[in-house]
Amino acid sequence: MFSWLRKQEKAVPEVIRTVTEGLKELYKRKLLPVEELYHFHDFHSPALEDADFDSKPMVLVMGQYSTGKTTFIRYLLEQDVPGSRVGPEPTTDTFTAIMHGEAERLVPGNAVVVDPKKPFRKLHPFGNAFLNRWVPAGAGPRAPRWDPQAVPELV
């Protein structure tokens, strides 16, 4: 009786430290159960993993041969990319994912696809023909790192 006289307890707001953390939590709590209920992962794409949320932004550079793609990337990184060559004829016959790493090195695509910390696990269904031509490269510690503070200067 007289329920309107009772004091309303205020709900304590949920604290989210980063946007990434909030998106990850929202996906796992709200969207993932719906995807599982309707078997979305069976016919479309696998569920998102933590690496999909935690990975750095990616940029795709593509074009015809000898148009300066590798030269452009070398200019941005201020260093050579492992496994890249520059010449007048087609020199690159692989797909390269350049990542920041502890050392400059080439990693087989098959090895990176099974690493749960990398956002490339979804490439596995493309098969060995693709994975043999996909070469992730560690750009080494000298490579510039992603700096969100620098983005407004680039715009």
From TrEMBL:
Protein name: Dynamin-type G domain-containing protein
Keywords of the record: Membrane
Pfam families membership: Dynamin_N, EHD_N
Listed GO CC annotations: endomembrane system
Membrane topology (UniProt): Peripheral membrane protein
Main localization (coarse): membrane
Cellular location(s): Endomembrane system
Gene3D superfamilies registered for this protein in UniProt: 1.10.268.20, P-loop containing nucleotide triphosphate hydrolases
InterPro entries from the UniProt entry: Dynamin_N (IPR045063), EHD_N (IPR031692), G_DYNAMIN_dom (IPR030381), P-loop_NTPase (IPR027417)
Domain Dynamin-type G: 53-155
